[in-house]
Amino acid sequence: MAEPGGGRPVTVSDVQQLVRRKDEIEAQIKACYELLERQKGVGMHEPLVDAEGFPRADIDLYQVRTARHNIICLQNDHKALMKQVEEALHKLHAREKEKHAKDEAEALAEAMSQNQSLPQAFAKVNAVTPGSPASVSGLQVDDEIVEFGSVNVNNFQNLQNIATVVQHSEGRPLSVTVIRGGRRVHVGLTPKRWAGKGLLGCNIIPLQR
């Protein structure tokens, strides 16, 4: 299929237009068959002459011949159009796939360039309870923690460091920085009493480096 607009990429709108044309042709074919049906049920192949070889007088020969001719032409158009629809869909899917691959490559390149300048994490979130202060703040499983209030990779010794910061910050927002999907993300986390255990509602484990 020659791409519409002289080499312009195929769009969803182009495919929809082709499908509309296909529907129109199908409606025209149906109308022609209905016309043949009204002519004593003459189809595409019944003879148009009587037993003696004379043109049949019980049907409108001109209408029948015209309808038969139109059906043949329309069916050819329909076949060609279906091929165009198939090719257009193929091009559309190929372009979407190409775009997706390009987006993924760009995201990977960005993540790699960010990784080179990302700070080192010292702990990781391996569980977050729904409805907890951690969940409400937007903390997620697999977030790698690079800063938890005043705790960072330089002064972190064990999980007690985090527990101490949490206890001293009850009811006050803590600044938490994590690495998520290769990006640095800042989270405002307020330790507080809630329906579950502890003040956070998440589980943090040290990272083995």
From TrEMBL:
Pfam families: Nas2_N (PF18265), PDZ_6 (PF17820). Keywords: Chaperone. GO terms for biological process: proteasome regulatory particle assembly. Coiled coil: none annotated. Belongs to the proteasome subunit p27 family. PANTHER family: 26S PROTEASOME NON-ATPASE REGULATORY SUBUNIT 9. Interacts with PSMC3. Part of a transient complex (modulator) containing PSMD9, PSMC6 and PSMC3 formed during the assembly of the 26S proteasome. Acts as a chaperone during the assembly of the 26S proteasome, specifically of the base subcomplex of the PA700/19S regulatory complex (RC). During the base subcomplex assembly is part of an intermediate PSMD9:PSMC6:PSMC3 module, also known as modulator trimer complex; PSMD9 is released during the further base assembly process. This is 26S proteasome non-ATPase regulatory subunit 9. It comes from Platysteira castanea. The gene is Psmd9.
